[in-house]
Amino acid sequence: MHIQSVAYWAVHGDIDNLESFLDGRRKGSFGKVTKEYEEMLLEVIEKEPAKS
pLDDT tens digit string along 3-48? Predict the structure, then answer.
C-alpha cells in the first residue's frame, strides 16, 4: 500500500463505519460481461484447440 493511500483513507475513512473504507470505484463494475459474451466465451472454452 502506498503512503498516499494510507494518508487518503486516514482522512476520508470513518472508523465507526467500516464500509467507508471500501473503494467506491468497485460499485457496478461487475456487470460488464453480457449474457451473450458469457455464452460465447463458454462455447470457445469448450472447443478443442485448432491444430496448426
Answer: 677 777 677 777 788 777 776 666 665 667 788 988 998 998 888 8
Determine the Cα–Cα distance for residues 14 and 18; give it in Å rounded to an integer: 7
Cβ neighbours of residue 9 under 8 Å, at least 6 residues apart? 21
Beta-bridged to residue 17, according to DSSP, are 14
Taking Cα atoms as reference points, which of 30, 28, 24, 29 lies closest to residue 12? Answer: 24
Asked whether 38 and 30 are in contact (CB, 8 A), the reply is no
pTM here is 0.35
